[in-house]
Amino acid sequence: MSAYLPLEGVRVCDFACVWAGQTATMYLADLGADCIKVENPYVWNPATRAAAPVLPAAAAAMIPPWMGGHPDGDPGPRPWNNSPAFIHVIRNKRSFTVDSRRPEGLAIVKSLIAVSDVLAENLARGTLEKLGLDDDAIRAVRPDIVILHLPAYGRTGAYVEGRGYGAHIDGVAGSTILRGYRDSAPETNVQTFAGDFFVGMHGGLAMLAALRHRRRTGQGQTIELAQAECSASMFPQAALDAAWNGRSSGSIGNRSTEGFAPNGVFAARGEDRWLALSCRSDAEWQALVDFLGRPAWATAPGLETAEGRRAAEDAIEAELAAFVAARDRDELFRDLQNAGVTAGPVLSAKDATEDPHAIQSPTWKRLDATEDYPATEFPAPSFKFSRSDVTLRTPPALLGEHNEYVYRELLGISDEEHATLEAGGHITTTYADEILGR
Amino acid sequence: MTADAATPTALDGITVLDLTAHIAGPYATKLLADLGARVIKVERPGGDPIRGFGPWLGDEPGIERSGSHQFLNTNKESIVLDLKSAGGREVLERLLPRADVVVTSYPPAVAERLGLMPDAVREAADVNVLSLTNFGWNGPYRDYALSETVLYAMGGEMYSHGSIGREPLKMGGTASLVQCGAMAAIGALGAVYATEVHGITQRVDVSLFDVQLNSVDRRSSAIMAYRFCGRVNAPPAVAGPSTGAGVVGVFPCADGYVEMTASAGPYWQRFAEMIDRPDFQEPKWSDPAWVRSPEAREEVDIALYPWLAERTRAEVWEAAREAHAILAPLFTATDLYEDPVFRERGLWTEVEHETLGRFPMLGRPYTLSETPWAIRRAAPLLGQDTDAILDEAGYDAAAIAELRRTEAVA
């Protein structure tokens, strides 16, 4: 039986790193592409497989959970195979190791490119060029290839040398200045990375579009996705208000960009329990007023319209805060929703894993334990296809897990060459001693 | 950029029947339209409610002047159909088989009322159907409503976004909804690709809650971390930038703020180079005990804050680029609009609108060398293409007049 995978037979030579790049290629892998991570055991790529190649439990404990929360708090000897930040974005892919800086390694990479349909990269600027793999060199090996570059600020212009991770790129895209409390400066903002996966989605989509064009015409092409430019699309309202009306938006706290009122997050009964609530229409406001038992403050004239409610937003928020504070978060959430009011609990990571709706949804898939992590649920692709087998088909690729597949099956190297490359440290499932500080 | 009709597009020949409204669905189909797909936007009588949201062109409200609409519906055609009328339904049934993919964003209960559940659509026509729903088609929250804020609260990583003891914070704008649209676009094009390769059609379901849980901004990682070790991602113990054991966070400078990360190793070395303090490259700055000490922190503060205060964001960023330090300015939307470098690169474009004239538009998220991203047409006027689409679907002038008379179309 066919799995009807859209990208069956498409191969990706994957130099992607961090979240933006690794998610871009993950979406192609989800759709069935044979996505092969090219990993250099002599180079530690920051924020790609873990925070650091050597990560004692005590050090991991000092890093925020999303980055430092390895299994049982102990990354063990191979942090690169069990990072909570990155392991799950290596699903449905393959991994092989090669030191592409040495001639024999570069030759291997070129022979992989020769049988690839896509090359994706977001390495620090100039890295591929230094290896002798600029676009022309790549095309010399595979003329019809689709190339994806994901520079931070573009491959042209004065910002080409700008370095940054998602948080910094978010700053330029206008994300950071738009969030925070209304009464505090941006300095207290938590570092977030809103653009990373967003960029990955667009990278995935652009490659898919380019592959479709190639399938019909035989023509490859080069995609340039400047992450800051792409991320700006998350904030079209602010962008157009600036362009059209000369207005510069700042943070509005938890109030609504769309003008919904009330719109906020309120403390519920107990410790650290929060409820988000929006009245997206005058009808929802009336439903809320009824739910509250039509108190005098809520039926005051003028509050029937969003405009009127916005003028009284402080007072409305104070009343709602008092109401929510006395009630159970989850009961209130259900009761409000059943009454026709848009509301929801602020779910911590723990809450999310226990949420009764999420648990019964095809959101996660349990994977077997490996030497590096225990059996647990991993994220599955969020597009659910009814006929194509677009799902979490193969577990995250551990470092060098598919060396045999790539070297022998795909590239067909001889036993002799294999032995030489292995002795030369190209073929391995660990990082080189110099990376591990040994 | 603008392009003439002869320029090839990546999605030439693909037709999308777009039954979505508001933000997430229209962003998905906008991405396809901007890559060259033909997108027929079916609007309810009165139009997609997004037309009622600003910002407004010249601060003047109006269903054609909505910035949300103008951004989300570029390159689309508009037909107004009353799907509750027999005439409107008949038109829809004629349009369905002409599409490669039908995209819906009806809440399940509304889809049931309209008879437009994905499987029902697929019974009416052998076509791909992509559905965006809040929580999927089953389960206890199936019929619950979402806003940008509630979506981020439940699905996203709002819980750790804020200061301890204060309410958690949403992101700016309607970022969560836009993100979900981008994910859905991959699903739609994936389905069309499967049709072209395997000759099959199918349904693809995207739940906004699911997208948020499994992606954006540390959320999937925070959930993995909890499963791995029971640690819950929470707001930082101390709000604000840190200068102990590395310089991390948002810092003020002469005309605004910059965000920087100068933790240990090469990042610290580049930071020292940026602020021209070679002594910070001495070995003691690699000693964890020293860098965590109050004395070290004081030394950094004394060096850093005045250095920043004397420089604008542009000057700080230039120094950072020279040293390859990990730093960027916090831009406002105005900064982004006026920035000469992004202008030169083409981030902003202009569209020519039939009644409103020319106005600036946020441009491409990517460039494709052979099949250029382009706005070929501004967002449609309400019902701008109704007659042309009906004509194409085989309605003659009399039939169109009758449909208009009965208000089945507009």
Structure report:
The complex is a heterodimer of chains A (438) and B (410). In chain A, β1, α1 and β2 form a beta-alpha-beta unit. Chain A is built from 19 helices and twelve strands. Chain A is 37% helix and 12% strand. Chain A is an alpha/beta fold and 438 residues long. Chain A has a six-stranded parallel sheet with strand order 3-2-1-4-5-6, with helices on both faces. Chain A has a three-stranded antiparallel sheet with strand order 7-8-9, with helices on one face. Chain A folds into two domains: 11-49 and 86-233 and 367-436, 3-Layer(aba) Sandwich (Rossmann fold); 263-357, formyl-coa transferase, domain 3. Chain B has 410 residues and is of the alpha/beta class. Chain B folds into two domains: 15-217 and 344-405, 3-Layer(aba) Sandwich (Rossmann fold); 247-330, formyl-coa transferase, domain 3 (2-Layer Sandwich), CATH 3.30.1540. In chain B, 38% of the residues lie in helices and 15% in strands. Chain B has 17 helices and twelve strands. Chain B has helices at residues 24-34, 67-72, 86-95, 108-114, 118-124, 148-154, 175-198, 208-213, 219-229, 266-274, 288-291, 294-309, 313-323, 333-338, 340-345, 386-392, 397-405; strands at residues 15-18, 38-43, 76-80, 101-104, 128-133, 203-207, 247-253, 256-262, 327-329, 348-353, 357-362, 367-368. A six-stranded parallel sheet of chain B has the order 3-2-1-4-5-6, with helices on both faces. In chain B, strands 7-8-9 form a three-stranded antiparallel sheet. In chain B, β7 and β8 (256-262) form a beta hairpin. In chain B, α10 (266-274) crosses α13. The radius of gyration of chain B is 26 Å and the shape is elongated. The two termini of chain B are 32 Å apart. The interface between A and B is large, with 171 and 154 residues.
